[in-house]
Design a protein that fits this description.
Helix 1 crosses helix 2, helix 1 crosses helix 6 and helix 4 packs across helix 5. By secondary structure, the protein is mainly α. The protein has a domain of 138 residues: Tetracycline Repressor, domain 2. The longest helix is centred in the N-terminal third of the chain and has 29 residues. Helices cover 75% and strands 0% of the residues.
């Protein structure tokens, strides 16, 4: 087979995979990863069930690929834009504001992808749970690193950075649920919580 033909097929395959995964992240944010199926995706995308199954092989492989795509999209919407702000308090505020945009727009049809799926898998050991926990750990670790930067720079009061990161993440998760229920007041609560955590040292 000529290289050009092979390249075109690979490009079409990548485009098809991308289209399927974009639909999959929305479905998983609404119905959880457990609700994903080749048949549902075929119906929603107009592709054949056999064709989608050929792309991913197994349901678990599809679920893991969906988690990867959701992580990429979250990073692009929240983490990367915040890198324009300097480390510490400014970046924490930027991360929070981009997270608010991510959850209120929302980037995924059902709101925060991680929140929508962790409750389904928190008591179910295996690769899906491991991937979701990894994403949660990465996010909390990012928050705690920026908190440590802010503490070291004297921007905020000395505190347990890991505990503060846990607190912030818990508030964001609760806010996601509130937003899904139509409580727009949670955005103000997020900002007030962040400012409490980022309080400057006395004097």
């Amino acid at each position: 087979m000529p290289p050009e033909t092979t390249d075109k097929r690979r490009l079409r395959g990548a485009r098809t995979r991308g289209m399927v995964l974009r639909q999959a992240v929305d479905l998983a944010s609404l119905d959880s990863l457990e609700g994903l199926s080749f048949g549902r995706l075929a119906s929603d995308t107009g592709l054949s069930k056999a064709g989608i199954q050929t792309l991913f092989g197994t349901k678990e492989a599809l679920q893991l690929a969906t988690i990867d795509r959701a992580r990429e999209m979250f990073t692009g919407a929240v983490v990367q834009p915040a890198r324009q702000a300097p480390h510490g308090a400014a970046r924490l505020r930027a991360l929070t504001e981009h997270w608010i945009d991510y959850a209120t727009a929302p980037l995924f049809a059902g709101g925060c992808f991680r929140v929508a799926n962790l409750a389904e898998y928190d008591s179910r050991p295996g690769p899906i749970r491991d991937a979701l926990v990894r994403d949660q750990d990465d996010w909390r670790n990012l928050l705690s690193r920026e908190l440590r930067h802010a503490i070291s720079a004297g921007e905020i009061v000395d505190q347990d950075a890991e505990l503060a990161a846990f607190h912030l993440d818990a508030v964001l998760c609760a806010a996601n649920t509130g937003l899904r229920l139509g409580d727009t007041g949670v955005v103000d609560k997020i900002r007030r919580t962040v400012e409490d955590v980022l309080a400057a040292p006395p004097g």
